Amino acid sequence: MSDYNLKRLENAVSYAMETGSFCIKNVIKNSDYFCIWGAGNFFTGAYERWFTNYGIHADYVVDRDDSKIGKIFFNRVPCISPEQLFELKNPVVMPLLGNDRQAVIEECESSGLNWINPNQYFFEQLNMQDDIYSSQDWFEHNKDNIFRVYHMLHDEDSKYIYSNIICNYLARHLGVASYKSLCTSGQYFEPEKLFHMSDNECFLDVGAFNGDSLFEFLNIVDNNFDQVYCFEMSKDNYTKLKKVVDTYPSKIKEKIICYHAGAWNENTLIRCGNEMDNPGEGAAFSISKGKGNFLKHEESEYIKCVRLDSILEKKKVTLLKMDIEGAEQAALDGARQIIIDQKPKLAVCIYHSLKDLWEIPILIKKILPEYHIAIRHHTTHISDTVCYAWI
Fold first, then answer.
1. Cα–Cα distance between 205 and 202 in angstroms, integer?
2. 3-state SS string over 314-360?
3. What is the distance between the alpha carbons of residues 121 and 24, in angstroms, rounded to a whole number?
4. Residue 73: in which H helix or E strand, if any?
5. Residue 320: is it exposed, middle or buried by C-beta count within 10 angstroms (0-12/13-18/19+)?
6. Distance (Å, rounded) from C-alpha 265 to C-alpha 391?
7. Pairing between β-strand 72-73 and β-strand 77-80 as defined by DSSP bridges
8. In 3-state terms, the chain is what percent helix, strand and coil (to 5)?
9. Which residues contact 265 (CB under 8 A, 6 or more apart)?
10. Cα first-last separation, the chain
11. What 8-state DSSP symbol labels residue 178?
12. What would the pLDDT profile of 274-321 be if each residue is shown by its tens digit?
């Protein structure tokens, strides 16, 4: 099986080198027409925000609604029917629909049309603003790291998952497993066949959001633990987190410390934010969003970001989880001493950009070479690919 996985990985990397498919910007550029399928509320409410603000312009929007066909949106995007789409030469399609998205994807595939995963686009769009990530030289320089991570993986399941995740990014036609079929249970706390929780865990939750991971952790350990440290950078999310913690019994609540701060590689103030109309409901509040020029004043704020080493240098940590919208590498760098001294189990998200799929495992192994490294995927779509590390 390993040889088969490796061969598909090699073919996917070769395909990406030939076509530039490692960057969606290249995929759009190499098509004759960029078409968005779905002229509904999401398209009309978010097209300028999510596309034109990032320098991406659709040639057509596609819809089956006769009342929309022929209409011009945003003074430049005509609406065409699916039949008209199928007559176009070399289009690429992004399905922006809810319940009917899978049906549209299947229709595109049966008609031989290339399509773009919208979730992948939203994760990658900030990187697309930097021309380096669409450069053949950049991918040429990095492609060997894909194989470096593959060969460091602990188990065959990881190699199978990793090779398919990479194929789904670079060369969908070479993958043999959908995200749905790759999905396993146990996210963060009991990943299948890797490690389990004890009754005296000291859990460092970086990207605590509204307390959802904390709630899951408490269920897994049946409320038996030593300490929890929650870091959340969004003011709104932090308020929700505190309200949740306040509902717990005193004997649990007194062992949970919440910090309104982000994790970074230095102690500083950083502009962070998120679009108010983001369907992620606040989960995507991030440092990377704050770096862009596309947020309104009320959608961003300066947040205290800290080196975890500086806050928890004398605190026990046995489990560290990170899901912080692409800031994981800087946060890991700021937790080096915790990792080196205490060797906690790690559960770090690597799905926020293509390069995270190799850069994060390599960084973890560099910080502590003794770690075993594994990959698991925990949703039926592109989100929640996690790198696990343990002694």
1. 10
2. CCCCCEEEECCCCCHHHHHHCCHHHHHHHCCEEEEECCCCCCHHHHH
3. 7
4. strand 72-73
5. buried
6. 24
7. antiparallel
8. 45, 20, 35
9. 307, 330, 331, 333, 334
10. 26
11. -
12. 877 655 445 677 877 777 666 777 788 889 999 999 999 889 999 999
Work out the burial of residue 105: count CB atoms within 10 Å of its CB; fewer than 13 is exposed, 13-18 middle, 19 or more buried: middle
- Residue 53 carries which DSSP code? G
Which comes out higher in pLDDT, residue 231 or 294? 231
* Whether 240 contacts 260, CB under 8 Å: no
Sheet holding 262-263, edge to edge: 262-263, 300-306, 268-273
- DSSP summary character for residue 233: -
Query: In 53-117, which residue ranges form alpha helices assigned H by DSSP?
Result: 82-87, 101-110
Contacts of 140 (CB under 8 A, 6+ apart): 17
User: What's the mean pLDDT in 252-263?
Assistant: 97
User: How would DSSP label each residue in 115-144?
Assistant: E--HHHHHHHHHHHTSGGGG-HHHHHHHHH
Euclidean distance between CA atoms 283 and 277, whole angstroms: 12
CA distance 255 to 199: 14
Tell me what pLDDT residue 348 has: 98
Which stretch of DSSP H or E encloses residue 228? strand 227-232
Report the C-alpha gap between 215 and 93 in whole angstroms: 39
pLDDT at 1: 59
Tokens of 138: 């950049």
* Cα–Cα distance measured from residue 228 to residue 200, given in angstroms and rounded to the nearest whole number: 11
Three-class SS of 262-301 = EECCCCEEEEEECCCCCCCCCCCCEHHHHCCCCCCHHHEE
Count the Cβ atoms, other than its own, within 10 Å of residue 106: 10
